Amino acid sequence: MLSRTADNLYWIARYMERADIAARLLEVGSRITLMPSTHGYRNEWDSLLQSSGTANGFSHKYGDPVQRNLESWLFFDRDNPSSVASCITAARENGRIVRTALTSQVWDALNTAFQELRQLERTPRSELELSRLTEWVMRHTAMVRGAIDATLLRNDGYNFLNIGYYLERGDNTARMLDVKYYVLLPRIEFVGSGLDNYQWTTLLRAMGAHRAFHWAYGGEVTAAKIADFLILNPQSPRSLITCVSGVGNHLTRLAKAYGRTMPAQGKATAMLNELETTNVEAIFDEGLHEFLSRFIRDSAELGTAIHESYLSGDLR
Amino acid sequence: MRLTVDHVTCYRYAAPVRGVVQSHRLTPSVFEGQTVLDWKVTVTDGLQGGSFRDGAGDRISAWSVIGPVSEILVQVTGTVDTRDLAGVLRGHRETVRPEVYLRDTLPTRVDTALIDLSEAAEGADGPLEAAHRLSAAVAEAIAYRPGVTEAHTTAAEALGLGEGVCQDHAHALIAIARHRGMPARYVSGYLFADAEGKAHEAAHAWAEIWLPGLGWVGFDPANACCPDERYIRLSSGFDAQDAAPIRGIARGPGAETMAVRVAVCTQGQQQEQQ
Amino acid sequence: MTTYFNEMYDNGAVRAPYARLEDWMRQMPAELRQMKQAEAETLFRRIGITFAVYGEGGDPDRLIPFDMFPRVFTAAEWTRLERGIKQRARALNMFLADVYGRGEIVKAGRIPARLVYENEAYEKAVVGFVPPKGVYSHIVGIDLVRTGPDEFFVLEDNCRTPSGVSYMLENREIMMRMFPDLFRENRIQPVDSYSERLRRTLASVAPAKCTGEPRVVLLTPGHFNSAYYEHSFLADLMGVELVEGQDLFVEGEFVWMRTTEGPKKVDVIYRRIDDAFIDPLCFRPDSMLGVPGLMDVYRSGGVAICSAPGAGVADDKAVYTFVPEMVRFYLGEEPILNNVPTWQCGKADDLKYVLDNLPELVVKEVHGSGGYGMLVGPKSTKAEVEAFRLKILDDPDNYIAQPTLALSTTPTFVAEGIAPRHVDLRPYCLVGESIDLVPGALTRVALKDGSLVVNSSQGGGVKDTWVLAE
């Protein structure tokens, strides 16, 4: 297929996943502010902004993080390229460009999300509760994802969509985890405290993994269990290993279909090998923050390799 | 006169580019005034594409270079025997009708000053004399001075400045000739300068005006003459851009710089221009 | 008072092609009609068929209004039209081959040299070059109006990239979904083979250097273009890639497409970009939409471009006047379809007539399109007419004038029920190795009461157009 078409499909997926994540961040944020805090809310919101990578943009526009401004920023603000509105608009525009590479169900789902977004934007903010907004996003991102899974041909386009989803998701799980560990809990003595548990639980909730986690592990919530669940557990839908192996699988399918292996496959395999052979102790020994920073860097390099291998159009 | 040409154009890119595509009109025209003895064009790592003669009689050759690449040399070398035909383009095979060259383009559009200048042809005894008068008027109105005009300067602007280079002279002459209903076009080529160094610019440009009975006739206001055995004709067009011997584009963000070296020599004489 | 030919009723009696629509129309209750209209709109929006209006801003996702009342031709009516359309498309192509070659028609004094060689649309770059199979205009859109049972006039020819064919196909699709019974009761010739015929036409003009199955692509200016939907729709129906300039590149003797599996050679480009933008090395150097070096590949036989660069000289409004002359000159036949009498404001006698009769005439810009920059004398105020008079006097060469034609009407659903509205017709004739026309066309309808302007940018809508089987 045209490299540009592959690129558009890949970005539909990345933007939809990013919209989903922005909504989840909003949810985490509002939950955290519901609890007593020794640092004030400001720190918690700050850390969320940092995890979305838009802290500078926010402070430039609004200054202090006030809840209402944060909601605007993460949901409606077109100046924030990662806001829900920006992501859904960009995903729909990418979809319009490659309309014929999508089924009518997928296009319908994308277009409906966009049309409803425009209605939401015209609704007075006083009538919009945060929970309604975040649920709205998750419903639509799931609808698009579901339409893709249910109706799309399993061809190269399907692979590029999935690569986009998994890459974006892995990157974001790593960022959320990093923020939680590094920013919210800078001092080691907090680890294991009640506050800590509450915040960890909130994080799990935001990832929609709260119940799944309890089914999988049971008992006390510990940092080690959460790290295992979100990094190394292949059953967890958002764990790093699930995401990397998802990218890897779809890259393998492409290599098979095209009869040709590219540098991207090697990179994904190396990342997967590492995750399969490490354990939580080793990760904590290295330092969770260091481990996650390395993962985020590797993930970006994998993205570059995918771009160069398939999306840039420079392949010969 | 036997003229040898050594013409090198060097393109450098600040950052390597994905590829380069060029369209060349670097082959001497085929007509009674010039006979090619040998002629060669090379492009560093270039892939030659199609080559054909277009309706205006120019030989066009396509080139592409596969990137990443950060420097390209286009080298033209060759020898041509030339004859003085008093500017007449005799024996040149072309199918474009002269009327096509009545159309104006941005750099050859007249303003009131150019219209005034075109009145030099008033009362001339026939089109040939009119054309000579127009050429002389341009030579008088625009003094040769490099560095005051640039590639996008229009005929009207150059006349306003009263100074310019051969491109500006040619544009001005084309503009006023067309204004008087005489088909006119821009010609690119080479010029050999004699020992006194009187001629300007080895990579040269002049104008051709179509005259009933004679066909296309060259006029070089920059040197106040008609092209003779010192001239080598390469290509023609509505204006400088349309007649450019090299048109090219690089894919990539790297800023392009260009350096040109042209030498046109005859036996025992040497002339070089940076 | 002008009387208009009503295509459904002739002195109160229903004309034959509409016989079966009479009951359908009468039996449809207002509520059902409204429901169906809403359903049609939803369908259009769902498939994404929208139309952005040049220079009007506003909603880029605006729908072009669809009128459910079909427009009908009998097989006999169509046969005559078809002969006329093909004749004209053939003559236009022969004209193009001639003026880029020996120019016999000019030498014979049948058309002024000035109109051809000094025309902005005449491309010097392709003089002497013969495109594959000698075809210049591969899709000829001919705009027709009807003034009586057997009277059709050509308003203008579109030899470059006529748009709107997606509406012809979608209108039919939607009518079949909403009113399947109508299609059982009436024997309507299908149009859905258009895309396959278009693909075949394009493939038939692959250059000689192409061996094997030609790869055809559709080149669009991009997703911001108002006709992007149509480009994407046609590419999909034909099963060819929809590319932008950035997806193609020139290397060696060929044009290549950037794919996830590496470069693929392209043989035929159906371009929906104007000449000026297709190659910055040959035309406008600032064009970002085109493919650098494309024209050199084209002129050395490495790729076909449809329509051929330079084809626009045949559909210029000043050249239009001479199309009947082309038919006689090249085919030795009398034109089956007539031109509308046209006055060239550039000619002194014509200009005088135009200025004396301005309130009765339609005046258009020579290079205008889309219904912009025109005067409809009888529908304009005195002040508008006078303002336009000054525009004409300022640049007479830029204007032509025609009598105000009594455009036929067909029944159309309007707020109050059903009323006659003026229509025109644009069939799409395909010219490749052979010449081909599907039995169908785009009917545009002026939805405003009394309006004669059918352009979608000026409040026009579209209808499904039926050609009945014998």
From TrEMBL, chain A:
InterPro entries reported in the protein's UniProt record: ATP-dep_Glu-Cys_Ligase-2, DUF403
Superkingdom as given in the UniProt entry: Bacteria
The DUF403 domain, residue ranges: 1-311
Alphabetical list of Pfam families matching this protein: Alpha-E
Name of this chain's protein: Alpha-E domain-containing protein
Organism: Gemmobacter lutimaris
TrEMBL record, chain B:
Membrane-crossing residue ranges in chain numbering: none
SMART domains registered for this protein in UniProt: TGc (SM00460)
Any Pfam family hit: Transglut_core
Domain Transglutaminase-like: 158-223
Annotated InterPro entries: Bac_transglu_N, Papain-like_cys_pep_sf, Transglutaminase-like
SUPFAM superfamilies: Cysteine proteinases
Organism superkingdom: Bacteria
Protein name: Transglutaminase family protein
Species whose genome carries this gene: Gemmobacter lutimaris
Automatic annotation (TrEMBL), chain C:
Domain annotation Circularly permuted ATP-grasp type: ranges: 70-446
Protein name per UniProt: Circularly permuted type 2 ATP-grasp protein
Gene3D superfamilies per record: 3.30.1490.270, 3.40.50.11290
InterPro entries attached to this UniProt entry: ATP-dep_Glu-Cys_Ligase-2, CP_ATPgrasp_2, UCP005522
Species annotation: Gemmobacter lutimaris
Domain of life: Bacteria
Pfam families: CP_ATPgrasp_2 (PF14403)
